[in-house]
Design brief:
alpha/beta; Peroxisomal Thiolase, Chain A, domain 1; five-stranded mixed beta sheet; globular; binds oxa(dethia)-CoA
């Protein structure tokens, strides 16, 4: 019987941070409006040497170091991203070469803000099924490549960064069954237009879907892991915006003992990178400990959603 667990985590946050003032000036908004509607105070902005690939390599390398394994031990690299400005080549093979995985498998996964949690689900099943012993799952996003800086609906919301996890063989099962869903009837509410791509969003529709459909997925993921909500040490939802997180917590009736990740305040919405970045922050701050059960929940464009309970590495 092969078992899978998260063995290590890594984060890359761009050094350059941007507050709300300049964005507010450009979009006829205000720091107060942005804070009230999204909770966001600052976000990371990638420099010229911080492409989707560069940031993925940085976060992936840290996750390998944290897991205590070398790049040659990696069988598969999965890069979840939706902010490449071209369709081919994907990022994963370049990331694998840069890390030195020696010709391992590599592919990109496009499930927007749910990309990382889809990736962890696939990685766990690959390890259990025997097609890989170590999978490096990375969420890496460079939103500044696809944002219209004058769009009032999106310019303030998104940021850049990358987060990664090594999913590998373990004595104890540390990854619960993945729960996933989609709603292609609402594909248009979060999409890119034109070439090069520019992000467009119908904010109210996304908000409605996230706050009405996603809470049930959270409950199902916890149930699938054979746990109750009160067994959780932490809840790490996709960092869409603080109002959505707070609404999820209310709808789920999450006990106050469960720590809730609120990394969006400092990082903005980093789509596929948001869940691993937020989880890393909880670990760095000592808010969760080794072995603690944490509910991960990704949701976003597609529309797509996926979640599972993982034990903290
Ligand atoms: O990964 C998934 C990511 N997506 C999300 O998390 C988006 C979810 N959606 C939301 O959080 C909200 O829809 C937003 C925060 C994006 C927008 O808030 P809203 O309350 O849905 O705004 P709205 O577009 O319905 O506009 C409400 C008011 C309007 O003014 P009036 O007509 O009521 O006077 C807008 O003109 O807010 C105004 N407004 C703004 N004011 C200042 C819209 N955008 C801005 C802005 N600054 N940036």
């Amino acid at each position: 019987m092969r078992r899978a667990a998260v063995l290590g985590l890594g984060a890359h946050r761009p050094a350059h941070r941007e507050g709300n003032e300049l964005i507010a000036e450009r979009t006829d908004s205000s720091d107060q409006w942005i804070r009230e509607r999204s909770g966001i105070v600052t976000r990371g902005i990638a420099g010229d040497d911080e492409s989707v690939v560069d940031m993925a390599v940085a976060a992936g390398g840290k996750a390998l170091a944290a897991a205590g394994i070398g790049p040659e031990d990696v069988d598969l690299v999965v890069v979840a991203t939706c902010t490449l400005t071209h369709a081919v080549p994907g990022a994963a093979a370049t990331v694998a070469s840069a890390l030195g995985t020696g010709g391992s498998g590599a592919f990109d996964l496009v499930a927007a803000c749910a990309g990382f949690t889809y990736g962890v689900g696939l990685a766990a099943d690959s390890v259990r099924g025997g097609s890989a012993s170590n999978v490096l799952v990375i969420g890496s996003e460079r939103f500044t490549s696809i944002l219209d800086p004058y769009d009032r609906g999106t310019a303030f919301l998104f940021g850049d960064g990358a987060g990664a996890a090594v999913v590998g063989l373990s004595d104890q099962d540390g990854i619960g069954p993945v729960v996933w869903s989609s709603d292609g009837d609402q594909a248009d509410v979060l999409r890119t237009e034109s070439y090069p791509p520019v992000l467009r969003m119908e904010g109210r529709a996304v908000y409605r879907w996230a706050t009405t459909s996603v809470p049930d997925m959270a409950r199902r993921a916890v149930e699938a892991a054979g746990l109750e909500l009160s067994d959780l040490a932490a809840f790490v939802p996709h960092q869409a915006n603080l109002r959505i997180t707070d609404s999820l917590v209310r709808s789920m009736k999450l006990p106050p003992s469960v720590v809730v990740a609120r990394d969006v305040v400092d990082s903005g919405n980093t789509s596929a990178a948001s869940v691993p970045l937020a989880l890393c922050r909880l670990v760095e701050q000592g808010q969760v400990r080794r072995g603690d059960p944490v509910l991960l929940l990704g949701f976003g464009a597609g529309l797509t959603a996926a979640g599972q309970v993982v034990r903290c590495p």
